[in-house]
Amino acid sequence: MADLTTDFVGIKSPNPFWLASAPPTDKEYNVRRAFEAGWGGVVWKTLGAEGPPVVNVNGPRYGAIYGADRRLLGLNNIELITDRPLEVNLEEMARVKADYPDRALIASIMVPCEEAAWKAILPRVAETGADGIELNFGCPHGMSERGMGSAVGQVPEYIEMVVRWCKQYYDRPVIVKLTPNITDIRKPATAAKNGGADAVSLINTINSITGVDLDNFAPMPTIDGKGSHGGYCGPAVKPIAMSMVSEIARNPETRGLPISGIGGITTWRDAAEFMALGCGNVQVCTAAMTYGFKIVEEMTRDLSAWMDEKGYRSTADFVGKAVPNVTDWQYLNLNYVTKARIDQDLCIKCGRCYAACEDTSHQAIAFNPGRTFEVIDEECVACNLCVDVCPVEDCITMVELDDGTVDPRTGKVVQKEYANWTTHPNNPMAKAAE
Amino acid sequence: MTSPFTPGIAAGRLPPEEIGRNFSDLHAPFDKHEAHVAADRCYFCHDAPCVTACPTSIDIPLFIRQIATGQPEAAGVTIFEQNIFGGMCARVCPTEELCEEVCVREVAEGKPVEIGRLQRYATDSVMTRQGHPFVRAADTGKRVAVVGAGPAGLACAHRLAMQGHKVDVYEMRDKPGGLNEYGIAAYKTVDEFAQAEVDWLLGVGGIEIHTGVTVNDSKLAELRASHDVVFLGIGLPGAFGLPELGDEGVTAAIDFIAALRQSDDLSALPVGRHVVVIGGGMTAIDAAVQAKALGADSATILYRRDRAAMPASDWEQDLAAARGVRIVYNAAPVKTHGKGAARELECERTVVEDGRLVALGDTFRIPADQVLLAIGQWLPSAPAEVALEGKVLGADDDTGRTSLAGVWAGGDCVAPGKNLTVWAVRQGRDAAEDIHAALAAPSVGG
After folding, report:
1. A368 and A303 share a domain?
2. How far is CA B334 from CA A165, B121, B271, B364, B377, in A?
3. What CATH number corresponds to the domain at position B317?
4. Cα–Cα distance between B238 and B8 in angstroms, integer?
5. Domain 4Fe-4S ferredoxin-type: where (chain A) (predicted)?
6. What pLDDT is recorded for position A342?
7. pLDDT at A371
8. N or C: which end of chain A has fewer CB within 10 A?
9. Which range (A152-156, A427-431, B262-266, B371-375) has the least confidence?
């Protein structure tokens, strides 16, 4: 049985599944339920400075988009940081940590970009026994209008400055949560590292409007006829998050910086993918908000099963294993030639591959009598669209042409040697092959 | 007190509330949630097999997508553009042999998209709102006589009216609707849907229905003189009989169904303790299931060939079995025995050898207080001037044109073997298109 125990920047947890700082971790009641359900750790809902807490809207604070069968694919929110008094949160955190010493408990913090504000709150957080802090430089709605959240995360200099304060006034791990609402994620990550951060976590939510009410022309979620952009999360953002994670993992300036992966993680497989891209652990929110805390059972059981199958004894055995395979387009092998193949036994004859290829791609699928669909190798550029639109898994696959065979599309013999764009004759910047 | 075991033919075998339950909607309508779940299963196939399988070529993937995107009424209009009886077809089509049989999810999972019920959801959405979705074109001054107010005649009339022609429909019965009104199981079309549908259809305007009018040869000549075109959608009003069975307790299944459909108190409708239906089509199923639903102690279908050969679909056969009907395959009736309450039907085993039905001489008897014949229908009084094809009217497959100038025909009276509402609608609609084209041409008419 694989060991799911993780040590993330010195913080131990029985499994790599933490709940992200969000509504599910807003108070003791929820967090106790989460730990009872089996979550490895919790990042407590973001704390603000001492004083009157923030207030939330009293209308809808979430909006969603759906796939078939109303499966929730994306969720957005306009909820702010915790709207409960700091003292209450700190007391609860201390109690919970005392009762669950084996679980990770991280305090998420968002206070103004003033040294005094950080200096004031950090000792109080330390007193709770929390294992570390996460700096919320990510929330794109509401708090950003007040110069916090993503307003900080979008300015690398601020990130570095605040991280330095935290490392000065707090002696446990400091994780910086990054906003994706930025052009180049490597810049804030580098700033965090330069400031002395122990890790980064990403992504926070993405600026979004989930819909427009066509009866009153108001963005959704709608508050009295008006709407404001909210933070988008859930399965729909996973590809964006994984790309950003990979950028940090392979960037020379941030390589090796521990990453806590966040963004649409719903299953063990999502988690394994993030971890393969370099995340030491993962944080989950939308999946729990959609299905409840019990989903962690699927995640832990199945991650463990997969690790057993693959012979990985601990998560460290596969963390980062995909990073070396993330490269620039220019280094992709142009001599790798594949063709789509349709398994006629699996085909259910829906014809979507045909419609997609005929209308929007390369006219490389023949619609034969009897509703059989066959790939025309002379036209197939191996774009994979047919695979992507086919409702049946593994019905259409991409098969590599053997070395020495002729690609009927180009008439050229398939070469085994790796060759990329940098040396391609059509590339005006090509370097002579050596 | 009358019960299922009361001998002979008697009414009120079951309490009224139980009869009411037995005749409730066969396929309860989808609510919005169910419709969306069902619609989400559609793959929006290219050149979809379901459309090809639909005699009226309804754009099924499109209307289902319209439901999925929250426009059920627009979905309904998509259906009605092809099939103005989309509401009835949603209820009575043997979808398991048409659209749903070829659904790729039937192929993939053995569970098709529930096209019929989705069609009902969409068409109900339109029909429960006030008004008619189509606007009649400006009056053309042309007049068309339609004989028979069944699905073929009314589909033809509606399409012609839409195009601006004035249509007179002549119907021999008291009500329009044809088999929709008189010949289909009550649990498939509850709440007087057939009449409501006709009323709704007439909302297009330009159609006048004349009931209680029998069109014989002289009346046909009169109509040809008074109208530019005549369309015959006269169905097959005659039921084949079996004289060797006698006539005591032996009736046509279509008459039994018609009486049932016209009854406003099913507990007052007599039914045999032991009912035997002879035949293998949908009418046989409808008659047997309804006899059982009225409280018959036993209802048996006697069919001379095997299950695979039975015209009623497997689904219909299973429905009958689930409703307590016994189906005896490979048996033919020989004669009846006894008088009054104690009747028996003597049957003989049959097999098919080299394609021919052979009686084996091996007989057995089953109790039969009431025998219903569902062995097919015919055309007792074909218009003399219209050439026949076999025993029905000859008409062009695509256009419905008959041998007689200015006379078109469609529906059961021309199409033996395709006796489905949806086929009648298609033929009526397509004849209307051809009539419209002909009326626009300079030389037409009788």
Report:
1. no
2. 103, 46, 22, 10, 20
3. 3.50.50.60
4. 27
5. 338-370, 371-401
6. 98
7. 95
8. C
9. A427-431
pLDDT of residue B338: 81
pTM over 0.90: yes
> Which element (helix H / strand E) includes A353?
helix A352-360
Residues B210, B256 within the same domain = no
Give the residue among A42, A73, A254, A48 at the shortest CA–CA distance from A142.
A48
CB contact under 8 A, B46 and A354: yes
Q: Among partner residues A354, A367, A391, which is closest to B43 by beta-carbon distance?
A: A391
Beta carbons of A341 and A265 less than 8 angstroms apart: no
Q: B58-69: string of b/e by CB count within 10 Å (b at 16+)?
A: bbbbbbbbbbbe
Measured between CB atoms, which of B41, B46, B108 is closest to A351?
A: B46
Residue ranges of alpha helices (H) inside B227-276 are 253-262
Burial class of B74 by CB neighbour count within 10 A (0 to 12, 13 to 18, 19+): middle
d(CA B272, CA B369) in angstroms, rounded, equals: 5
Residue A349 confidence (pLDDT): 96
Domains: count for chain A: 2
How far does the CA of residue A380 sit from the closest CA of chain B (Å)?
A: 19
Residue B245 and residue B231 share a domain: no
3-state helix, strand, coil in chain A (%, to 5): 35, 20, 45
- The CATH number for A382's domain is 3.30.70.20
Give the range of the structural domain holding residue A13, as residue numbers without chain letter.
6-325
**Partners of A234 in beta bridges:** none
Q: How many domains does chain B have?
A: 3
Give per-residue pLDDT as tens, B233-291.
999 999 999 999 988 889 999 999 999 999 999 999 999 999 999 999 999 999 999 99
CATH number of the domain within which A125 lies: 3.20.20.70
Nearest CA-CA distance, residue A392 and chain B, Å: 9
Asked whether residue A299 falls in the same domain as residue A350, the answer is no
Task: Please indicate, yes or no, if residue A63 is contained in any of the structural domains.
Answer: yes
Residue A432, pLDDT > 80, answer: no
In the three-class reduction of DSSP (H, G, I as helix; E, B as strand; rest coil), residue B308 is classed as coil
- Burial environment of residue A431 by CB neighbours within 10 A (0 to 12, 13 to 18, 19 or more): exposed
Instruction: Residue B104: give the domain boundaries.
Output: 40-127
Same domain, residue pair A223 and A350: no
Please check whether residues B177 and B100 belong to one and the same domain.
no
